[in-house]
Amino acid sequence: MTVRRLLTVAALSAGALSCSDSTAPTHTPLYEWRLVVAPDTLSFHWPMSMLPVKIWVQDSLGMPAHVQDAIATWRSAFLYGEYDAVLVSDSLSADVVVRVGPLPVKAVATVGQLHTMFPGCEGETVVDTAATRFQLQLPVRMYIHPKYDPAQTDLSECFAITTTHELGHSLGLFQHTSDTLDIMYAQPQATALSVRDINTAQVLSHWPANMIPTR
After folding, report:
1. CB contact set of 188 (below 8 Å; sequence gap of 6+)
2. What are phi and psi of 86, to 5 degrees?
């Protein structure tokens, strides 16, 4: 019998990075991205052998286009092709599944939520483990939820920001930042990646990952 546990990826006020790796870039400024589940500190990035990451997107409210834009945004943050993704038509083979709607009640691990001054939406990313916390259960699940009727309110900017934020969680940015200029801020308002977002993404892509993706 397989034991599955849901880990909540929350906005933790972690300090400076406590360890280093000789192969990792040493860019600054950056922020803590790793998930702390005492006594472990969990780090993840997609292995090169799994690139491009396969993403299935529910074809609703123009979400495939928003995910494509988010992929391009994050792809451009890396120096040597450390991240790439493509949309696929089969959700069963996808590494990441993106749905339009609220997080199901049975899924309790929530990361990013967007609450902005303009008519908004919410986003959640579920990090699910398998037999151990070091096994990342695929697919990673993302939810984009409009808070208002899209037929009555233009939510295109909200969808764009939220999708980019949630995709950041799916590639290993497991924490929120305290800086409103970062796309990974808990209530994101930025329309582009900050220097801190880019630096942190580059560092995490070379940091030793102790979470292994598994089906």
Report:
1. 112, 114, 116, 161, 162, 164, 165, 182
2. -135, 155
Query: CA-CA distances (angstroms) from residue 96 to 28, 40, 90, 106?
Result: 29, 24, 11, 18
CA distance 116 to 113: 10
- Distance (Å, whole) CA 68 – CA 123: 16
Instruction: For 88-111, write each residue's pLDDT tens digit.
Output: 999 999 999 999 998 886 655 443
pLDDT at residue 132 above 80? yes
The span from the CA of 184 to the CA of 140, in Å, is 18
In a domain, 166, yes or no: yes
CATH number at 199 reads 3.40.390.10
**pTM, two decimal places:** 0.86
Give the domain extent around 187: 5-10+29-214
